[in-house]
Write a structure and sequence with these properties.
This protein is α+β, with helices and mostly antiparallel strands and about 200 residues long. The protein is built from 5 helices and 8 strands, in the order ββββαβββααααβ. It is about 30% helix and about 30% strand. The protein has a 4-stranded mixed β-sheet. Strands 1-2 form a two-stranded antiparallel ribbon. It has a two-stranded antiparallel ribbon with strand order 3-4.
């Protein structure tokens, strides 16, 4: 997949550019961008993901084939906050639904054991990619564009207590653990995956 920064997606005909991705600010200062791929993972965490198409390497043949899956939000993300330690700690659980659109390799991931294997494989990739985006906002942007502070603020009795906590200074060091639950409910346009056979010569 090719990702572009906001406002830099070339097109033929019509508008020459399309807006994709996000600009990140700290206060009123522009501090960086999320590209199109990163923006989709941002939408997962913020609960704004509706549905979108992802391509992933095939778990059995990652260097040869891809799997195309439509992913949508199953339920709103769940957040747990722990402020008892030296660093604020968050647990984020993403609850997603998926629909297989294409399996190039023809491997039948609809079998029960293979379906579970595919779910686990995709959950691991999504977790890693979400954590990369969060890390980028902590280390490069030093800006809480996800709004984790909104879940922290409720633990303070007064606005002054919240301001004295200096959340934006603590955000870069916050420990954020991501969990992913992906439920592939059905196979979409695919009635049944079949192995692709190649025949040579004129025999049967």
């Amino acid at each position: 997949e090719v990702s572009y920064l906001p406002g830099y997606v070339p097109q033929e005909g019509g508008n020459k550019i399309d807006v994709i991705g996000l600009a990140a600010f700290r206060g009123d200062k522009l501090v960086g961008y999320l590209n199109g791929s990163e923006t989709r993972y941002y939408q997962m965490v913020t609960g704004r993901l509706k549905e979108t198409i992802f391509t992933f390497p095939d778990p059995e043949k990652p260097d040869e084939y891809i799997i195309v899956i439509e992913i949508r939000k199953g339920r709103n993300p769940e957040f747990k906050v722990d402020l008892t330690g030296e660093k604020p700690r968050f647990e984020v659980k993403l609850i997603l639904e998926g629909e297989i659109m294409s399996i190039q390799s023809g491997i039948n991931y609809e079998l029960s054991k293979d379906a579970e294997k595919l779910d686990t494989y995709l959950e691991k990739i999504i977790k890693q990619e979400v954590e990369k985006v969060i890390q980028k906002t902590q280390e490069d942007f030093r800006s809480d564009i996800f709004g984790f502070g909104e879940y922290t603020r409720q633990y303070f009795w007064t606005w002054q207590d919240w301001e004295d906590y200096h959340w934006l200074e603590k955000y870069p060091d916050a420990e954020i653990e991501v969990g992913v639950q992906l439920d592939i409910r059905r196979t979409g346009l695919m009635l049944r995956t079949e192995e692709i056979h190649t025949y040579y010569g004129g025999g049967e």
